[in-house]
Design a protein that fits this description.
Layout (H helix, E strand, L loop, with lengths): L4 E4 L18 E6 L7 E6 L6 E9 L4 E3 L6 E4 L9 H4 E6 L3 E6 L5 E8 L3 E8 L2 E5 L2 E5 L3 E5 L4 E6 L5 E7 L39 E10 L2 E9 L4 E6 L4 E4 L18 E4 L3 E6 L17 E3 L3 E8 L12 E5 L3 E3 L5 H5 L8 E7 L4 E3 H4 L2 E2 L8
Parallel strand pairs: 9-16
Antiparallel strand pairs: 1-18, 2-3, 3-18, 4-17, 5-27, 6-24, 6-28, 7-8, 7-27, 8-15, 9-14, 10-13, 10-15, 11-12, 11-14, 13-19, 16-17, 20-21, 21-26, 22-25, 23-24, 23-26
């Protein structure tokens, strides 16, 4: 996933002559992943996408680690991250390992002064507050509250926000982000028991196709550094493309929860996967309907993964004193479970109104210095 998609004008056969109205050739680009073995797109550009005029500043954006070997449970108050004007400067890494980085961002202004390209990672942007348009070299996507935006590595993009009150929960992934394999048949189509399907996926709907030459600044992320590169033509000059490698959107509100007579384990909430972590969506749902069921989750030991929960809205029934924008970290190696009184409170309830995003990593997460600035360091005592 995603599925095959075509937008704009393309020739009948790939790697063949495709000419502009003046008779000159469009420039074809294979935009692929995992060498020549992963998802790819063939795009056709007005100008050569290779024309670099200058390479300017280069600086590190690597997270500053506060706790490298962590076994303490934390709560982080995400809305305490202060809004900033610039999109990239607003991105604050709070948890990280060699596979992914979890980021909070509160950008006030649209990203218009430059273009951005992350060559290290696929990006998952969850929109907690705000709406607008994600503009990319492979087309545009409108977004709003509750949307996941999946931006494959190498996509050149800008973001137009409708207001200055924006909150994003971002996961950078060093490996490609897919929908869960168990929800797809051998053709790639989502199965009948999948909690969402192709109808719920929104693909780019328009190309901008700018025929402009000049000085166009692209800030490129590579190996945790930003490299400022000036290109001689506008990055959004694609007249058409087809393939599987492009950005897309999915709303958490379109996730259809799987329920049962007794409490269901977290994998039923899974929405995305990589070879290093999974992402789950906890959505309003009917509670378990066995006459003796306990809807609150049972205590469980995180032996193989760190669990991160980002709280979006509603009353998260297994936790006390949790608000929108909070993040809980329950690290590998120790058990965790519902707060005192939560199991009893859940008995007899008919359903939840919670909305949250969970990230479970298979390698331990390191806590950054920016995370410690918004940390509740006594959270680990909340089970007493």
């Amino acid at each position: 996933m995603p599925r095959y998609h075509s937008l704009g004008k393309i020739p009948p056969k790939r790697h063949t002559q495709f000419r502009k109205p003046d008779g000159s050739l469009y420039s074809e680009q294979l935009f692929g992943t995992i060498g020549f073995d992963g998802m790819y797109t063939n795009s056709y550009h007005v100008h050569r996408p290779t024309m670099v005029k200058a390479i300017k500043k280069q600086y590190s954006v690597a997270p500053t680690i506060a706790k490298q070997n962590n076994i303490q449970s934390y709560r982080f108050r995400g809305f305490q991250v202060a809004p900033q004007n610039d999109y990239l400067q607003s991105r604050k890494a709070v948890l990280t390992n060699s596979d992914c980085t979890i980021i909070l961002a509160a950008p006030k202004n649209s990203l218009k002064e430059y273009f951005y390209k992350n060559t290290d990672s696929d990006e998952l942007l969850f929109v907690h507050k705000g709406s607008g348009t994600l503009r990319t070299h492979l087309g545009n996507l409108d977004f709003k509250y509750g949307d996941y935006l999946i931006i494959p590595r190498g996509i050149i993009y800008q973001i137009d926000f409708d207001t200055q009150d924006n909150r994003l929960f971002i996961v950078e992934s060093r490996s490609p982000i897919y929908t869960p394999k168990r929800y797809r048949n051998w053709f790639g189509q989502h199965l009948e028991h999948s909690p969402f399907c192709e109808r719920d996926i929104r693909v780019p709907y328009e190309l901008e196709t700018n025929d402009q030459k000049g000085d166009f600044l692209i800030k490129v992320k590579k190996n945790d550094e930003i490299i400022e590169m000036v290109y001689a033509s506008h990055p959004f000059d694609v007249v058409g493309y087809d393939g599987y490698n492009y950005p897309y959107a999915f709303s958490i509100h379109d996730f259809e929860p799987i329920t049962g007579r007794i409490h269901q384990p977290p994998p039923v909430h899974q929405t995305f996967e990589t070879d290093a972590f999974v992402v789950c969506s906890f959505c309003p749902r009917l509670y378990d309907y066995h006459p003796l069921s306990i809807p609150a989750p049972y205590n469980h030991s995180n032996i193989d993964s760190d669990e991160v929960l980002y709280y979006v809205a509603g009353d998260f029934m297994s936790r006390n004193d949790i608000d929108a924008g909070h993040i809980s970290l329950h690290p590998a190696g120790i058990p965790h479970g519902p707060h005192p009184g939560a199991a009893e409170r859940s008995i007899g309830k008919k359903g939840s109104d919670e909305l949250a995003v969970m990230v479970d990593t298979f390698k331990p997460l390191m806590v950054t210095q920016e995370a410690m600035e918004i940390a509740d360091e006594d959270y680990f005592k909340s089970w007493l």
